[in-house]
UniProtKB/TrEMBL annotation:
Cofactor entry: FMN
Xref: Pfam families: Oxidored_FMN (PF00724)
Top-rank taxon: Eukaryota
One Gene Ontology cellular component annotation held by this UniProt entry: cytosol
Official protein name in the record: 12-oxophytodienoate reductase 11
Stored InterPro entries: Aldolase_TIM (IPR013785), OxRdtase_FMN_N (IPR001155), Oye-like (IPR045247)
Keywords linked to the UniProt accession: Flavoprotein, FMN, Oxidoreductase
GO molecular function: FMN binding; oxidoreductase activity, acting on the CH-CH group of donors, NAD or NADP as acceptor
NADH:flavin oxidoreductase/NADH oxidase N-terminal domain residues: 16-348
Similarity comment: family membership: Belongs to the NADH:flavin oxidoreductase/NADH oxidase family.
């Protein structure tokens, strides 16, 4: 069989198909990580049977998947139809989803999430103001569940220091619930301008107490969450996602290298499953914009497993592994529209383009109906041209 198209694993994406062992002894068969991707199809905030189909379509033997952001408590919501993990119904809703992924031989981490001020009273108990490190509202708008249209963010309520242990415990309880639901571990969502990032970044955090001001203070809440979650389920079951340079939801910092250096030094003290860094490229509902910054300096600072995310292709992902830029590469949008993305990368097969219009809609369209290679005319034609085994 010819290796020119990589069908024997020797093509341009070959480095992505080297095995890797996570701390805790999890054996991965390849380096591609399915990204945390909110899909807004968890009606009543409970994962639906369609989620089992969706995730199992994308699960691979020896692969690592991270679930969509999953909300740790009633005050954590800020988007329609996102799943939670603080009621028995939510735990039970996740169980068949996790089982379906495990049946495919994949390792499944769940991303635990509190959106903080990126919410709106319409999502909050008693329509109270969302909570945050600050009272400053996010600039821009959010989708209101009541008016069903975009509305300005309102000011938030700054949490008192005495309230923080209870929020920290919500993350720990969520982690315990997720392990009870069968997940292999959790990813703490410390990125993209959500609650933890609202403490980390001086573009948001304007506190003057022990949780604001100097870097050590702004990292305190994040590190308390990490410690509590590690204590709850074991550090080798815990990952964390950070966006050192992200400006999403105003989550930027005046000294991103200093902030992230301190954080990584502290995270080195735990034997975490991984640290997951968002590259400084804008994604989501816009096309990529590249910036001058890079996560590259953080590789040598963090001693454990490093995942890099945003804007990766087969070629630059493999190059990132080859060069030691990261250990594992996270793929989002292309894995939405190509359920068999690792196979396509290995074969050098054509990709189905993702449809942004269905990222956050509630139907099966754009969710469970993207074709496998065999299911499209283009894919069939490609497979027919491959040398026979
Ligand atoms: C539809 C959609 C939903 C997303 N949801 C989440 C999420 O729940 N948690 C998170 O940390 N990032 C989320 N992201 C960001 C992705 O995890 C990923 O970083 C982003 O898509 C860039 O990677 P890519 O270039 O491979 O798509 C989302 C992105 C998209 C497009």
């Amino acid at each position: 069989m010819s290796g020119s198209n990589g069908s024997d694993g020797s093509g341009p994406a070959a480095a992505l198909f080297r095995p890797y062992e996570l701390p805790g002894g999890v054996q991965l068969q390849h380096r591609m990580v399915y990204a945390p991707l909110t899909r807004c199809r968890a009606f009543g905030n409970i994962p639906q049977p369609s989620a089992a189909t969706y995730y199992s379509q994308r699960a691979t033997p020896g692969g690592l998947m991270i679930s969509e952001g999953t909300i740790v408590s009633e005050t954590g919501f800020g988007y329609p139809c996102t799943p939670g993990i603080f009621t028995q119904e939510q735990i039970d809703g996740w169980k068949p989803v996790v089982q379906a992924v495990k049946d495919k031989g994949a390792t499944f981490f769940c991303q635990i999430w509190h959106v903080g001020r990126a919410s709106h009273p319409h999502y909050q108990p008693n329509e109270e103001l969302p909570i945050s490190s600050t009272t400053k509202p996010v600039s821009g708008q959010c989708f209101s569940l009541k008016s069903m249209q975009m509305e300005d963010h309102l000011p938030s309520r700054a949490l008192a220091a005495e309230e923080l242990p209870a929020i920290v415990e919500q993350f720990a309880a969520a982690a315990r619930n997720l392990v009870a639901a069968g997940f292999n571990g959790v990813e703490i969502h410390g990125a993209n301008g959500y609650l933890i990032d609202q403490f980390l970044k001086d573009g948001i955090n304007d506190r003057t107490d022990a949780y604001g001001g100097p870097i050590e203070n702004r990292c305190r809440f994040c590190l308390e969450v990490v410690k509590a979650v590690c204590d709850a389920i074991g550090s080798e079951k815990v990952g964390i996602r950070l966006s050192p340079f992200g400006g999403f939801l105003d989550g930027s910092d005046s000294h991103p290298y200093a902030l992230t250096t301190y954080l990584l030094e502290e995270l080195n003290k735990h034997n975490l499953a991984y640290v997951h860094l968002v590259e400084p490229r804008v994604a989501g509902n816009t096309d990529l914009e590249y910036t001058l910054h890079s996560i590259a300096p953080f590789r040598s600072m963090y001693k454990g497993t490093l995942i890099a995310a945003v804007g990766y292709t087969a070629e630059n992902g493999a190059a990132a592994v080859e060069s030691g830029h990261c250990d594992l590469v996270c793929y989002g949008r292309w894995w939405i529209s190509n359920p068999d993305l690792p196979r396509r990368f290995r074969l050098g097969a054509p990709l189905t383009k993702y449809d942004r219009a269905t990222f956050y809609t509630q139907a099966a369209e754009g969710y469970t109906d993207y074709p496998f290679l065999e299911d499209s005319e283009e894919g069939k034609a490609f497979l027919a041209k491959l040398p026979a085994n």
